[in-house]
Amino acid sequence: MTPTPPIIRRSLEVAGRRVSYLTIDDVTNSNTDSVGGVTARDTLLLIHGAGVSARTWVNQLRGLAGVVRPIAIDLPGRRESDAADPTLATYADTAYETLRRLHSGPAFVAGHSLGGAVAQVLAERHPDVVKGLVLISTCASMPPADGATRVLGSVPWPFRRAVLQWVARRTLFAPCAPPDAVRLTLDELRECRVSTIQSDTAMGQAIDLEGVAQRLRVPTLILCGERDALTAPALSERLGVLIAGSWLQIVPAAGHMLPLEAPELVNRALADFVHAVTRTAAVAGAPPVATRRYDLRGAAQRLVEMLWRRPWRSATET
Fold it and tell me: For labeling, which of 44, 55, 110, 113 is most exposed (least CB within 10 Å)?
């Protein structure tokens, strides 16, 4: 069995700012390898959530390297990426410029949590670069902050990190979450800049993208953990109603940190989605780009048939 190439960090410049990203060494410059009819020219941009970095996509970087060209971006203010105005529009434009400078062409875009909001804004502002959208553990609008969030906001910053770790354990993970997933996430939260956590929290609480979601016209897959206590399945169901032609899969026994908690299931869903969108576009006889007007009902039916031939298992069974 061929070992997986190492994950490497690279960077580029966007509007005078450094943007860092993670990728897999041997696919970064490959344009000819093909797996199941999908070439390495198909880029998958991975956008992480609040308070963490591209490291939370480590399982997707390793697991999908033979299917796509995976690029996990560090949003502004994370790791080696320079800070920028903390808005969804700024983050979406940063992602767009990253794709443009990497000469990816139309790409698949997956966003987790706050990254899912960024992905929605990216797909609306720059539809020409998004050929398929995967929204994981995210929503179009957040309900009012619960008691735990309000209490956290009143805790002085010298003690807030400790409280945040406690809240994170209780809200981000299902009881059966792998210890490595919990450890990596808590390490990320500890290492994240205080100012970034503050701005991420404010952005998350203010998300109001129902109008954006309704205007999206791109093949969209929505994934959510059954035990997600932060963005409950009902929010994903609402997102599925708003985005025409989208389809939803609830992953049993998984929490909010779905890419880390159930990586094999997420990777399979992503790979199937890439194959299905590419093949459907080929059958239709037109390039699979978001600016094309899809017959959403017919496309959705064909994609569902291709995607969900095999029953999903719970995260504990993988």
Answer: 55
